[in-house]
Amino acid sequence: HPQPLSPAVSASLATGSPGSLGTGSGPGAQTEWVDCIQASDWCNQNPHCSSRYRVMRQCLVGKEKEAMLDNNRECQAALEVLLVSPLYDCRCRRGMKKELQCLQNYWTIHMGLTEVNYRARRLHCNLCLDAAKACNLNSSCKRQRSTYIATCNKEDPNKGEACSKKRCHKALRLFLDRVPPEFSHRLLFCPCQSVGCAERRRQTIVPDCSYKDKEKPNCLELRRVCRQDSLCRSRLADYMVNCWVTPQTVSTCPNQDNHQACLASYARLIGTDMTPNYVDSSFSNWTISPWCTCKGSGNQEEECLNFLRYFTDNTCLSEPSRYSHVLTQWITVQLVPPVWVAVSNLFSGPVLPTLFQ
Description:
The protein has helices at 7-15, 36-45, 47-59, 65-71, 73-82, 99-116, 118-125, 127-136, 139-152, 165-178, 181-189, 195-202, 207-210, 219-227, 230-243, 254-257, 259-269, 301-312, 320-334; strands spanning 276-278, 288-290. Strands 1-2 form a two-stranded antiparallel ribbon. The two termini are 24 Å apart. The chain is built from 19 helices and 2 strands. Helix 5 (73-82) crosses helix 12 (195-202) and helix 15 (230-243) packs antiparallel against helix 17. Mean pLDDT is 74; it is low at 1-31, 116-124 and 319-357. By secondary structure, it is an all-alpha fold. Among the domains are: 7-123 and 341-347, GDNF binding domain (Annexin V, domain 1), CATH 1.10.220.110; 216-318, GDNF binding domain (Annexin V, domain 1, Orthogonal Bundle).
């Protein structure tokens, strides 16, 4: 069994962000780190992380590893996900027990970085990772994000279920209500140029708890349930007003092309029965939808499809692609640049302190 992590480290792991394993902030702050064996144990217990970890190990085996890392989408996606896991920021202590195993875990990630010169690619491809880093530099965003991630990943023993959707939804609403949109919207709408980035964006709201269910209800039934709840009903109506485009609409978005109003209305739906999300990890032709289907609608199929198109075929909602330059500016201006190790120096002198503590 893995050794339990300290509260500070556990909170940091919940955020899934490298470089956040600290008990303080600023220069001179005391840093609490986790060794790579503990980080590996945590990853193996997390289905999302463990599957990417297994993929990454396969990508680094054999003579064709450079081609795999450069051209294989699964390898690229696995590496991008692991970069925001505790494995990226883990450490090893000289002479520690299982030192060799610790170093092997460390190099599973960092050899991947060496092989693909990941720094240059990441700066262009993963604005969602930068959005997460920006959130972690803001105390309110980091605290609220850590809270909803922990809540949405917590098992509900009373119902014998993987999580409590009701508590997860409440935690998400608190996050979106209390955190400024310059942080929360960056996490939800960050533009992507890779599968790994798009998967991170899809995972933002912990969809296994907040979005998915055992079965997909009919969209008209989901709408009926939503309208019975005053909060969901009002937020759905707000979304329709700010996002829906009719044939009579002159521009691509109502309210004089106020795309931010549409994005805000979309975000306010998260944490309700009508919670929407990205349906897959596509980064080019992505689709938004609530968790529902129009199968079995009978003579109401046309009405059902028309309602579903409010999300899936919404040109106003797709405007974040034009809005991405604003997101990029937010991230570039406000994000403190990450500290990167020059990999070429790893073999030219003493082992760097980023590897051993």
